[in-house]
Amino acid sequence: MSQPSRRKLITAGLAGASGLAVAAKLAGDQGLLPPDAKGIYGPGEILNYATHRLVSRHAMAREFAPAQISNPPYVNGPPPKDETFLRHQSEGFANWKLTVDGLVALPAAFSLADLKSHPSRSQITHLACEEGWSYIAEWKGVPLSQVLELAGVKATAKYVVYFSLQGDWWDSVDLDEANHPQTLVAYGLNGGDLPVGNGGPLRMRVPRQLGYKSVKYITRLTVTDSLKGFGKGLGSASPEAGYSWYAGI
Amino acid sequence: MADSSSIPRHTGVVRVTHWLTTLCFLALLVSGVELVISHPRFYWGEAGNSNTPALFQLPIPASRGGVNTGYAYVLPDQNGWSRSLHFQSAWIVGATGLLYLLTGLKRGHFRRNLLPADFSWRALTQSLAEHLRFAAPADSGSYNVLQRITYLAVIFGLFPLMIWTGLAMSPGFTAAFPVTVTAFGGQQSARTIHFFVTLFLVLFVAAHVTMIALAGFRSRMRAMVTGRISQEPS
In angstroms, how far is the first alpha carbon of chain A from the final one? Predict the structure, then answer.
């Protein structure tokens, strides 16, 4: 190998490295850095999230024909067995509440009946688990954007954090995902109520990301400008267990 | 290294991209095996799960309880870091492949070294027969016809198909470019093809390493590290 081409290779390497540093700075300014951007796998997380936000910010998840619905809908693990959930279940979820707080003008608590009184959206989408299995179902619910509009999201908001009644499950999405028309606060499945096995009575449904972002049994939404104060500050319980916060991959 | 008894064999770009690809391939393989273990069932079409018939199921235990494997135990779950390692390696190998592709096109690497120069079926069957006898290949200073066809198939067939089927499993990417997944007939089909491409690549690496051993492991490793190969028969 000749010397000039080796020099060229080194120059190209250095140019590439400084280019990456500049790109990272620009990405931060543009809101393209995920909350779990640090650490050994940070570069991959940044590239995944930033690329998707650049190419598919407003793209719609694929929707399917009724004939493609998976029957029966797949149930992944048993519903919660704790007293609170069982009590709600015995009451027919009449007292289930979704509270909305944080950077909103009007903190609120919605019952299932409240949520059902608002215009709904139904969509037949694919739910893919990171494990490899998947199913197609018709999901019905209130677009999250509508719930946020009712509460009046403040201009400084950047993320919506959502919490489950179930143990340690909580997650968050950026405002692009939260305001996306297919992101639903879902209460219906395949024409009926959302069964407890599939996250009923109320589940977040984020069809442009893997199944674990669609947290089941949700009871609370918090609108925030920073994810630092939640858990370890990585944006979700998933990164704390080694998984990506952005799961559109 | 540039002593009179050795001659140039591989360019710097070929050597750097070769070893980066090797590292990434190993990382992708190990993490990919981890991911498969969490659901060792494969399907065809859009959707598939433990309720639906499988195309086939690997006869191994799983790292999650949702699959009936026939084994009484569940393996430790390692999907978290495996997924992160898989995607990060995919980015690096993608960039490496792009560098290799662009420099290769610019410098005529593919035309000169990989396109079978004077292809004939006789030469191919002869080369195939030599390989099947595990004969030590003669070093003619350039790739033989079977080698050229195999490298071309890996570079322009298996690698692009691997990236494509990987993208076809991404709900975010397929939202923007649905044809990525519909071209395969669904997300589960893409996953199954991704698995088979892995098998072909593992087969390729096994054959590649075997041929290196037959041709002379030390001299070939030296050639891919230093760029030069000894003129004496190895």
Answer: 40
State the angle between helix axes of B187-226 and B12-37 in degrees (0 to 180), rounded to the nearest 10: 140
Return left, alpha or beta for B134; rule: phi > 0 is left, psi -120 to 50 is alpha, else beta.
left
Give the range among A7-21, A68-82, A201-215, B40-54 with minimum mean pLDDT.
A7-21
Q: Do B80 and A243 touch (CB under 8 A)?
A: yes
Give the global pTM. 0.92
Pick one of 3.90.550.10, 3.40.50.2000, 3.40.50.300, 3.90.420.10 as the CATH number of A62-240.
Answer: 3.90.420.10
User: How close is the nearest chain A Cα to the Cα of B133, in Å?
Assistant: 35
pLDDT tens digits, residue range A156-166?
999 999 999 99
What residues does each domain of chain B span?
6-230
Domain B6-230 classification at class level: mainly alpha
B144-199 tens-digit pLDDT: 899 999 999 999 999 999 999 999 999 999 999 999 999 999 999 999 999 999 99
Scanning A42-81 for CB atoms below 8 A from B yields: 43-45, 47-48, 52, 55-56, 59-62, 64, 68, 70, 72, 74, 76-77
Peptide bond into A201 cis (omega under 30): yes
